[in-house]
């Protein structure tokens, strides 16, 4: 098996997308679109208003969502609601107009846990939690630029 020496050895069209489980996935999809500005691309419904798979986009990035009771997710992944409200990762989203995004999200009731601020490494960012406790960071700092 050959070893990848650096990122240039990988396909340049590759991107990373996170998968998130929610107990109230349908409501969370609506919330993510209204408050953060995500757009629905695909939603595959299951029984009892569950989400088997949803794909939401934000710029050229995306997230995948499923209900916390579908398939292997209850075994492999947990919602912060399942582990005492503690997030296990930060979901970081790069936005050009972070101040406008912050004011919109705050105005829509997002739970701001770190107020918007300038960062010593460049850019501005803020941190919030969604209604099920996932931690989101919105930042103007883009390490690819």
Describe this structure in words.
- By secondary structure, the protein is of the alpha/beta class.
- It has a single domain, classed as 2,3-Dihydroxybiphenyl 1,2-Dioxygenase, domain 1 (Roll), CATH 3.10.180.10.
- Helix content is 18%, strand content 35%.
- The strands form 2 sheets. A 4-stranded mixed beta sheet has the order 1-4-3-2, with helices on one face. The chain has a 4-stranded mixed beta sheet with strand order 5-8-7-6, covered by helices on one side.
- The longest helix is centred in the N-terminal third of the chain and has 12 residues, at 25-36.
- It is globular.
- The relative contact order is 0.17.
- Class from secondary-structure proportions: alpha/beta
Unreliable sequence segments: 1-11
**CATH structural fold name:** 2,3-Dihydroxybiphenyl 1,2-Dioxygenase, domain 1
Oligomer: single chain
Main sheet makeup: 4 strands, mixed
Instruction: Kindly report how far apart the N and C termini lie.
Output: 33 Å
Residue-averaged pLDDT, rounded? 87
Q: How many DSSP H or I helices?
A: 3
- Cα-atom radius of gyration: 16 Å
Q: Spell out the helices and strands N to C.
A: EHEEEHEHEEE
Biggest sheet, spatial arrangement of strands: 1-4-3-2
Question: CATH homologous superfamily?
Answer: 2,3-Dihydroxybiphenyl 1,2-Dioxygenase, domain 1
* Percent in strands: 35-45%
Domain module count: 1
The total beta strand count reads 8
Helix content: 10-25%
CATH class equals Alpha Beta
Shape estimate: globular
């Amino acid at each position: 098996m050959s070893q990848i020496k650096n990122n240039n050895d990988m396909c340049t069209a590759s991107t990373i997308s996170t998968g998130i489980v929610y107990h109230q996935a349908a409501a969370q999809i609506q919330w993510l679109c209204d408050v953060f500005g995500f757009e629905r691309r695909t939603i595959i419904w299951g029984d009892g208003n569950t989400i088997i798979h949803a794909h939401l986009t934000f710029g050229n990035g995306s997230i995948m969502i499923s209900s916390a009771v579908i398939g292997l997710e209850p075994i492999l992944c947990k919602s912060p609601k399942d582990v005492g409200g503690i997030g296990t990762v930060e979901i970081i989203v790069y936005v050009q107009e972070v101040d406008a995004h912050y004011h919109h999200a705050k105005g829509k009731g997002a739970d701001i846990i770190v107020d918007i601020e300038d960062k010593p490494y460049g850019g501005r960012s803020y941190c919030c939690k969604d209604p099920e406790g996932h931690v989101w960071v919105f930042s103007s700092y883009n390490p690819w630029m």
